[in-house]
Amino acid sequence: MPQPKKVAPVSKKPEGVSKKAPQPFALVRGMRDILPSDQYYWRKCFEVAQGLCDAYGVDRVETPVLEESGLFVRGVGKQTDIVEKEMFSFETTGGEHVTLRPEGTAGISRAYIHHGMLNLSQPVKLWYWSQFFRHEKPQSGRYRQFWQYGVEIIGESDAVVDAQLALMAWRFLKDLGIDAVVRINSIGTAESRANYKSALAAYFRPKRSRLSEDDKKRLLKNPLRLLDSKEPGMAELKAEAPQIVDWLDETSKNHFMRVLEYLDEVGVPYQLDPFLVRGLDYYTQTVFELYDTNETEETAQSALGGGGRYDGLMEILGGRPTPAAGFALGIDRVVSRLKSMPHEQQEKKVDVFVAQLGEAGRKRALALFEEFRLAGIKAAEAFAKNSIKTQMETANRCGARWAIIVGQKEVLDGTAIIRDMDAGTQEIVDGRKVVHEIQKKMAITE
Ligand code: AMP
Known about the structure:
The chain has 15 helices and 16 strands. It has two domains: 36-189 and 249-340, BirA Bifunctional Protein, domain 2 (2-Layer Sandwich); 352-440, Rossmann fold, CATH 3.40.50. By secondary structure, it is an alpha+beta fold. An eight-stranded mixed beta sheet has the order 1-5-6-11-10-9-7-8. The protein is elongated and about 90 Å long. Bound molecules: adenosine monophosphate (AMP). Adenosine monophosphate (AMP) binds at residues 103, 134, 136, 141-143, 146, 148, 303-306, 328, 330, 332-333. Adenosine monophosphate is lined by residues 103, 134, 136, 141-143, 146, 148, 303-306, 328, 330, 332-333.
């Protein structure tokens, strides 16, 4: 029989002289963890979003995090900040050029074309709750990975859709207790915008020396973006600049007037903002953003969300001309607002605490916990703890009204102890009926 080869023992370094201890990993810049203590707010936002979309007949859709880079270059626009500087793009080992999605509309439009949704009854109403990635300078309210809740209504050009979207976005915030105002503008059709861009460039050209380097580039590439500029001194220059409303064609003007009339009708507070253009190329006609009316200090990170009409996007992406509009709300910012507001206590009470003593008791308790769960009774446990005192302390901490105690004796007798946590009284019940007994007690105390 072959003998196993003798292997020289690995020389062990004496304790304490080991290699340098590994350093813990830091977060990648711009990324963050959303910890359990914040989940209450995230869940609340999700539930309000879902409730609203159900009520408005909007179906959920989720598209991939990775898309072909070309989708955003073409869809969002080559000269936008997003495409020029903010995309997380890379080449896969298979040679594909892909990008972590920086926004939701392009991907959803791709999905609409890809799945032939044009053949469905129009408009198609879709919502998403997804993560997006932009390589921006991280600061408060600006992350490199962030969440948006968004709605797109595709296949309808009527102004009522624009108003309904602004209403839904506003209502989402209102239901969460945030009083918001919709800042709104119309950037007209591509043709009316072209004339306006020329007028704007003509206005800013003689003032070129007063512009920042970034704004000088904007003047050359897309003067409309100058209106977006938050550079110091720009507010003064913009005040005298030509306003787009004066350049709108009749159809665009009518469309915009109707959007405002609908908003008046449903009581959504809005402010006309002649300088609102939004940073993305695909917008046409209505554009809007949402701001918290109680926020005193406005920064570039103040907008809670934004949206508008994008009638030309489907065609740019290779689909048939299809009117569409949508909005996206930044959930990281909404949650941060919620956290700064006074809130009711985060209730996390349970009905019963299942306590155990000894191995047999633990086994029975494990099964009993399942029985409570299946009966829809909120139960808590500390199965890994042996001491009954520790378990009772935990039961108190989680606000349990009753504790069920099963030890060796109860398992042998086929019983269980029910302890009233407030009164401190105990009773012995039939182990098979313990769930039923608790249901009876709950019915009495409700
Ligand atoms: P946008 O369409 O780019 O205006 O984005 C819509 C909303 O998403 C913004 O109003 C923000 O609330 C949120 N948002 C956009 N970029 C970020 C980011 N980098 N970090 C956190 N939230 C963001």
